[in-house]
Write a structure and sequence with these properties.
- 2 copies of one chain form a homodimer.
- With 306 residues, chain A is α+β, with helices and mostly antiparallel strands.
- In chain A, a hairpin with a 2-residue loop joins strand 4 and strand 5.
- In chain A, helix 1 packs parallel to helix 3 and helix 1 crosses helix 7.
- The radius of gyration of chain A is 20 Å and the shape is globular.
- The termini of chain A are far apart.
- About 9% of the residues of chain A have low confidence.
- At the A-B interface, helix 2, helix 3, helix 5 and helix 10 of A face helix 2, helix 3, helix 5 and helix 10 of B.
- Chains A, B: Keywords: Membrane, Transmembrane, Transmembrane helix.
């Protein structure tokens, strides 16, 4: 179990102090201001399969982490994040079958996404944080993206089995190409939405739950595309790429983001693919930059200055 | 993967036909009436660690199964339930890290409790099924019961470690007794609520989401209490026991209920306790009867005729 205190200065800091690796909760906390009466929310997120001190690639975990970060940033709550190895005896015993994300507040344990969201919703409402505004158009546009991506991942990795390098997208049989086309179409429709709206985040100038949902998924699509599928988000989707750039400039996203190696490891584990030592021994890195040409186009259009 | 078709006559039938155990979905379906346009909802629930064709002790799975059963019973939806071995390669590959319960409708995959509930909520609303009526009193009364039970389970099994039989409740040190007292207090407060309301289910004459939440948890408390902790729901809580009896007479509960052995196995697994062969080899049984004296008292008061 490893803890991540919330601190906007953490990015340039050394890794947080670990008090004692053998205890269930080796956490310390940084407070954002003096308020002792602020609720303290602890979020347990899935650890990486490579190193249980590192953040694993759990999308719901990152989603809630981002939402909590938003509450933390404006001083509504104190937040601590801890990584947990779900296979450890200590974890199983403490949570008796519950899976991360798990949120704890005083003596309350939230082990259900509905309850975690309910509590965050309540806090956001109490302090008028516009984190949960509804927008059916956005909801519809983003809802099946990740499911479609999973279908593509499965079909493509099956097809690539035994090959030294992933097959070229153009050479794919129609049955697999159909999954690819669906992804690209949907990415294009999100690009179009962003172009129409001309907003920084999906709903406006500030982050909402839709961004907490979409940003981590887009990043997984990018990393897994690049490292496993021979696929990239099409470079002509400039508004979508600009949105990815926004993610890379959003502290809530960066702090909660697993390393590339940990994302890749998660998918390989699920797909029962061979993990080579290079990945598990590499120093973790995070791809939070854009392809040169895409960045150039974004700058040319002035999108990054919104 | 093993499937459970919905049929109210299933209780007295032989186990459902398995077409092909090696396919991912070896399901057949029974239709409740003719309506081909009814949505078909497939629920994937966690399989037992003893036998992946048997239902495992996953509380969220049973909760949604019960809700879906309610929709099925009144003819709103067709439903199929399948058990999945979460450790199998086939499962991991198909769902890429998602955990049961998972619901599938046509090409939509719901892997998040919020989304599963959202879909069931929507269907219930569309057909005016009063499954999601709100009652803050009930909500408050039941919310921390299971969390408190988990604390008790952990403390008590730790204390019992190495003993041949579970220690008597009366002999427990104060630090553990406190957990026991909290459970009993809370069970008594639910008993009082039921006594005040004089209703069959928590909110009235028909089952709501609160019952789908409480009934499985009460049953786990009973089975684990009996088989692991030397604890029983106090026999003087007649209204609570009558509510348990209601569960045992509710098809949605019975059909979705794991066998005693599978419930016990789940807790032992999480607690890292030794599982003896007797449990894994036993024919699965379901305790769906009440202690004689309690049943006598219920009948004397006429509670079971409500």
């Amino acid at each position: 179990l490893h803890s991540y205190p919330f601190s906007s200065s953490l990015l340039s800091c050394p890794p947080p102090l670990r008090l004692d690796h053998h205890r269930m909760a080796d956490a310390y906390q940084l407070q954002n201001g003096a308020g002792d009466k602020k609720p303290l929310l602890e979020l347990y997120v899935k650890a990486s399969g490579i190193d249980s001190r590192r953040i694993g690639a759990c999308l719901f975990c990152q989603e809630f982490w981002m939402e909590l970060y938003a509450l933390y940033e404006i001083g509504v709550a104190r937040v601590e994040v801890k990584t947990v190895n779900v296979n450890s005896e200590a974890f199983k015993k403490n949570f008796l079958g519950a899976q991360p994300p798990i949120m704890i507040e005083e003596d309350k344990q939230y082990t259900d996404n509905r309850d975690i969201e309910g509590r965050i919703f309540h806090l956001a409402k109490e302090y008028s944080v516009p984190l949960f505004e509804k927008d059916p158009t956005v909801e519809k546009r983003i809802e099946s993206l990740y499911r479609n991506f999973k279908l593509f991942v499965r079909a493509k990795t099956d097809f690539d089995k035994g090959k030294k390098v992933p097959a070229d997208i153009e050479s794919l049989p129609a049955a697999i190409k159909i999954h690819y086309n669906r992804i690209v179409e949907q990415l294009a429709s999100i690009d179009q939405l962003l172009a129409d709206r001309q907003t920084r985040y999906l709903l406006g100038p500030s982050m909402t739950e839709y961004d907490c949902e979409l940003m981590p998924r887009l990043h997984h699509i990018r990393i897994i595309g690049q490292r496993l599928l021979g696929f990239d988000i099409p470079h002509n989707l400039t508004h979508l790429w600009n949105y990815v750039l926004t993610a890379y400039r959003t502290a809530a996203f960066i702090e909660s983001c697993p390393a590339d190696q940990d994302i890749l490891h998660h998918y390989k584990e699920q797909l029962n693919l061979f993990t080579n030592q290079r990945e598990t021994l590499q120093s973790p890195t995070k791809t939070h930059t854009l392809p040169e040409s895409v960045l150039g186009e974004i700058k040319r259009l002035g999108l990054d200055r919104k």
